[in-house]
Specification:
single chain; alpha+beta; Immunoglobulin-like; Purple Acid Phosphatase, chain A, domain 2; eight-stranded antiparallel beta sheet; 13% helix; MPP_PAP; Purple acid phosphatase; zinc
Length: 419
Amino acid sequence: MFFPKLVAVSNFIAFANPKAPVYPRLAHGKSWNEMTVTWTSGYDINEVVPFVEWGPKGGKQIQSAAGTLTFNRNSMCGQPTRTVGWRDPGFIHTSFLKELWPNMRYTYRLGHFLSDGSYVWSKRYSFKASPYPGQNSLQRVIIFGDMGKIKRNGGSNYQPGSLNTTDQLIKDLDSFDIVFHIGDLPYANGYISQWDQFTAQVQQISSTVPYMIARYATDYGMFHFCIADSEHDWREGSEQYKFIEHYLATVDRKQQPWLIFAAHRPLAYSSNDWYAEEGSFEEPMGRESLQRLWQKYKVDIGFYGHIHNYERVCPIYQNQCVNNEKSHYSGTVNGTIHVVVGGGGSHLSDFTTAPPIWSIFRDKDYGFGKLTAFNHSYLLFEYKKSSDGKVYDSFTISRDYRDVLACVHDGCVKTTLPT
């Protein structure tokens, strides 16, 4: 039998400042030339004035004030968050950095001005401002869902692939400009501390490039993104349906040719085994309501998570492949390509045994998608595995503005004959 023996005692270990600002994360603001910076600290608004010091790299630095929010146990829905899952979240600060110059490199650091006249600072970070809508420059986008988190010591292994994805993105940090994480972030399940674990895990990424979550419409150079909320009604006549149609309809395709739709749950196609058992190959009532909009406004690609694998579907309309090509698409937009990119890190999902005719490529592994817009007429998509960062599936789209204007299927303007 083994009996542990005390061999040494260390000095008392404590944080230099347990209230220090941590976990900076960037996101787009309400306009293309605005960046939001959000972080967490232990400082209440009554103790300090939070702000961000920022400016062009090597240039004059200015200070922008930050707002402060928090929440308490009673504002939570129920257990376990109100009981064993509760932990004081500290305070969440957000500042808006405005009137950024396109593609300019900026530096920033988080600051707190204390009542005694002293300052508390974070380390200095940097980011590159977004290109202006329609700008013709190299633009690179990462998109995936369902990553989760994991402890490096293996103490928590519910999302086993999440560190592979995180580490690969950190390794590739110079090769992309923005991240879209389309749902299922830490799988906190009512345990607040797991949000801190997740934001710590992705900090190297989220402090350097915009890390976009939730639902919104946003511009990034030649891209226009419409991100739907698959937890709320998207059927025709609903508030969200009107939101989706408005943002698909108002994009200027001459300036922003690449129109991307996304949602967490597969609202189009997935050959996941449980969807197959239901006979729908989709989230209930998904594409029935939305495919008319995808076709009318010539959506290039739809991205989804929720199903923990990778799958690419042919350009499709009303359950029919409208293009026999596998890797290069050109000319008229006669169907939307749908892609499931839910292999960010959580336990993997099974496919049906036999792939449907519309399923071009399937992979039960961890990975993420990457979009690269080279110009207004050429787009590359790549699926990369998190384990090695290599490309395992890809396709290109080449077309000009006239192809987007072409009349096909339900995208034609309705007319009546003269009487």
